[in-house]
Amino acid sequence: MQPTTEMISVRTLLLSRDLQVIETLCHFAQAMGIHIEPCCDVELAMGKLCHAKFEGVFVDLGFQGGLEFLRKVRTLTSNKSVVSYAILGQNHQQADACQAGANFVLDRPLLPGAVLRMLKAAYPLMVQERRRYFRCPLQIAVFVSRGGGTEFTVKSLNVSEAGICLNSAQPMQVGDKLRLRLRLPSNSELLDLSGEVCWSEATGRVGIQFSNVKPGVALTLRTWLTERLEESLQQPTNSPDGPIM
After folding, report:
1. Shared domain check, 180 and 104
2. Is residue 238 part of a domain?
3. pTM
4. pLDDT tens track for 48-63
C-alpha cells in the first residue's frame, strides 16, 4: 500500500456496554484511522446498520442478544459483507462466534498486543470494503452500444468499482447488455467495459453493473477511485444521490 492509501478512514459500529472494551478499542483504532461508533442498544444498532454503510462491526457477546445480533448482520443487504469482530463473553466460545459469522474473535480481557494484531490484520479488508461501496460523483460522456447497434453518447452521474449510474435520453431496459467506453478525468486511457442494466427509472437514470472487467481496466478504475476516495476524506461531503445498482 502507498502511505496515503494507509490513511483511508473506515467506519465501524461497536455494540457493547463494557467501558473497558469501548475505551480499549477506540484508543487503538483511532491511531489507525478507524472510526468506532459505540452503541449500547441492540435495536438502535440494527437501525444504524439498516440505514448506513459500515466497513466493520464489533459485537460484544457478553452483551445480552449479542450473538443473535451478530447472526443478523449477515442478513442485511447493505452490510452483509462487512468485516465482523466478536468479543467473547463468559458463556460463549470461539466456535459460537465463527458460526455466527465473525471474521475475527477477541478474548477477554482485551490485551493491547492482541487488539493491535487484530486491527492490523483486519484493516486492509475494511479498506477494500470501503472502496467497493464508494460511489464517486462523475459527469462525463460515456459511449454506449447494445449488441452490434450504433454507438450513442450519454452522461454519467457516478461510478464505483461495481458499476456506473447514467442519465440517458434513450430508454434502457433491465437486462440489456451494453458495451461502454469512457475516459476518466486526468486519465488518458479509454476504458472499454461491458455491463448489464440492473435498474432503470422513467427519468432516464439507469444503473449498470459491470461484468467481465479486464484486469488492467479494473486496476485503472480501482486506482482512480482510491485517489478520489482519499480526496473525499479530506473534506465533508454529502453521499451521492441514488444507488449504483
Report:
1. no
2. no
3. 0.67
4. 998 888 999 999 998 8
